[in-house]
Amino acid sequence: MQIASNIIHNGGLVAFPTETVYGLGGNALMKESILKIYKAKGRPSDNPLIVHVCDETMLKPLVTGIPPKAKLLMEAFCPGPLTLILQKTCLIPDEITNFKQTVGIRIPSDKTALNFIRTANVPIAAPSANLSGKPSPTSYLHVKEDLFGRIDGIIKDEDSKFGLESTIIDMTTNTPTLLRPGSITIEMIEKVIGEIEISPYIINNTFVEDDTAPIAPGMKYKHYSPDAPITIFEGSPQNVITHINNLVKNSDLKIGILTNDEYSNYFDKENYFVLSLGNNKEEYGKNLFKCLREFNSLDVDVIYSFYFDEKDIGLALMNRLKKAAAFNIVNL
Ligand code: TXA
Ligand code: MG
Fold first, then answer.
1. Burial class, 48, CB count within 10 angstroms (exposed 0-12 / middle 13-18 / buried 19+)
2. Which helix (H) or strand (E) holds 144?
3. 96 in ligand 1 pocket by Cβ < 6 Å?
4. Residue 23 to residue 17: CA distance in whole angstroms
5. Which of 33, 61, 215, 237 has the most other CB atoms within 10 Å of its CB?
6. Confidence of residue 202 (pLDDT cuts 50, 70, 90)
7. Closest by alpha carbon to 26, among 134, 100, 127?
8. Pocket of ligand 1, candidates 86, 110, 165: which has the most ligand atoms within 8 Å of its Cβ, to mutate?
9. What is the dihedral of CA 6, 10, 15, 16, to 10 degrees?
């Protein structure tokens, strides 16, 4: 921790575990560190970074205030996999927010992450620690795969508990607006602060097409993609199983199938690469990015996926999977 903290104070970059995905951390108060983060990730500079703090004391100087509903959400879910968009003060460099007056703030619950931020004793700007466009890293090995030689260190720890990035909610709009679904679900949030708005990009399943800076997370850029194209089949499990088996029979391609424990038994594993997300939605979330990366190592030509239900954290799972598939969804 002391070594990691020294790197941060010298303007370097350290990847660290969180309960969602691994983050690529730099000193949020140093402009040079921020520029290094964008460079190491190959990330477009108009996609703002989240600032990680260890407690409310570290948070307070960074924002103009904490609105009452934001306070309620913090009491309920922080530390945890939730990012709040708040009005920033001038302590936050414009490079973090792409000159927006708002900043995303998160208090992670992962013990190692908290220990790291506490030891460094400065707010840590951190996007997910993957190369831009690749699936987010849920293991230190994923970070190494993408960023070895491009950053100054990795704090090695267990695989990420949730495996999907934090829920992001904009608290600066009249009615709070969900910008990215995550493990803190809409239902959980509405129980605490009443009805919220859902960004149309989540509902309509589209990327932002225009040239304006992304108003919301991952809405403009292609995300999470494995090398092979993904097709998601929506329909009854029986139809999907039959359809994929037929496709596979008539193909010379190296085929990957993304399914769950229950349906994986219906595929002949001798002929194709069947990866299971697990046997409940928590496991699906934890394993999604890992499976997408595994398809890369298996070097498959195409990936066929089931459509999983979008209730509760299923919304976050399908949000990431649909983006990885560039919204290539076939109704059966
Ligand atoms: O779980 C997480 O949130 C992980 C871990 C490391 O904390 N971090 C993460 O960061 O997913 P990143 O950079 O991959 O995604 C952050 C998203 C970006 O897509 C960005 O558009 C959005 O947050 N964002 C950041 N600041 C924003 C702001 N002021 N307004 C709207 N969106 C913002
Ligand atoms: Mg990311």
1. buried
2. helix 140-147
3. no
4. 6
5. 33
6. confident
7. 127
8. 165
9. 40
Ligand 1 lined by 19 (C-beta under 6 Å): no
**pLDDT score, position 45:** 83
Instruction: Please tell me if the CB atom of residue 168 comes closer than 6 angstroms to any atom of ligand 1.
Output: yes
pLDDT at 18 over 90: yes
Tokens of 318: 């399908």
Question: What mean pLDDT do residues 140-144 have?
Answer: 98
Q: Which of 53, 128, 136, 154 to mutate to test the pocket of ligand 1 (most atoms within 8 A of CB)?
A: 128
Question: In the β-sheet with 82-87, what is the strand arrangement from edge to edge?
Answer: 153-154, 14-16, 23-27, 124-125, 50-52, 102-106, 82-87, 167-170, 177-180, 197-198
To the nearest 10°, the Cα dihedral for 213, 186, 20, 168?
20
- pTM for this predicted structure: 0.94
Q: Which ligand is nearest to the CA of 117?
A: 1
Q: Please choose, from the candidates 110, 138, 143, 142, the residue with its C-alpha nearest in 3D space to the C-alpha of residue 124.
A: 110
Nearest ligand atom owner, CA of 199: 1
Q: Which of 12, 7, 88 is closest to 51 using CA atoms? A: 88
Residue type, position 128, single letter: S
Dist CA 132 CA 8 (whole Å) = 22
Judge whether 131 and 43 are in contact, CB under 8 Å.
no
Residues whose CB is less than 8 angstroms from the CB of residue 128 and which lie 6 or more positions away in sequence, other chains included: 21, 22, 23, 24, 136, 137, 165
Ion ligand 2, residue ranges at CB < 5 A = 128
Give the confidence band of 305 by pLDDT, cuts at 50, 70, 90.
very high
Q: Is 47 in the pocket of ligand 1 (CB under 6 A)?
A: yes
Report the alpha-carbon distance of residue 199 to residue 117 in Å, rounded: 31
Residue with the larger pLDDT of the pair 249 and 158: 158
Ligand nearest to the CA of 182: 1
